[in-house]
Amino acid sequence: MLQVMANISIRRSNALGKAMARQKTESLALSMEAKLGIRWHWRGDQLNFDTPRGAARGTSGTVSVDDTSVRVEIDLPLVLRGFRGAVEGKIQDELDRLLR
Predict the structure, then answer these.
(1) Cα–Cα distances in Å, from 40 out to 2, 50, 64, 70, 86?
(2) Is residue 3's pLDDT more than 90?
(3) Which terminal Cβ of the chain has fewer Cβ within 10 Å, N or C?
(4) Mean pLDDT value across the chain
(5) What is the mean pLDDT of residues 41-48?
(6) What's the whole-model pTM score?
(7) What is the pLDDT of residues 48-97, one digit of tens each?
(8) Residue 61, beta-bridge partner list
(9) Which Pfam families does its entry note (predicted)?
């Protein structure tokens, strides 16, 4: 089955260092697991996630962490395409909060 995705790509500077940014990213993933039922795992310095059920069902993506930046890539399923702007704004706000 072909799924048309709305892609979101956001990159932020990271002045916290890789270890702290990674720790904060994992805390956020745990929170999203509780709120939205995401599944997640680390592969190196990249957190991979997907959402098998619930309101965000079909959403997947990655959060890549390095010494100087954090990059978020999210694929929204067709059913959530209309909410792309709101989702992107929420992610930008959360990244800004996370990287303080």
Answers:
(1) 24, 7, 13, 17, 22
(2) no
(3) N
(4) 92
(5) 98
(6) 0.89
(7) 999 999 989 999 999 999 999 999 999 999 999 899 999 999 999 999 99
(8) 49, 74
(9) PHA_gran_rgn
Q: Report the C-alpha gap between 59 and 72 in whole angstroms.
A: 13
Cα distances from 71 to residues 3, 7, 13, 22, 78, in angstroms, run 23, 13, 9, 12, 22
Block residue for tokens 């959530």: 80
- Alpha-carbon span 51 to 38, nearest angstrom: 4
- Cβ contact 89:26 at 8 Å: no
For residue 1 the two structure tokens come to 């089955």
Tokens (6 digits) for 89:
């704004």
What is the fold, at CATH topology level, of the domain defined by 6-98? TATA-Binding Protein (3.30.310)
Tokens of 40: 């997640």
- What mean pLDDT comes out for the span 16-39? 95
Amino acid at 7: N
**DSSP-derived secondary structure letter, 79:** G
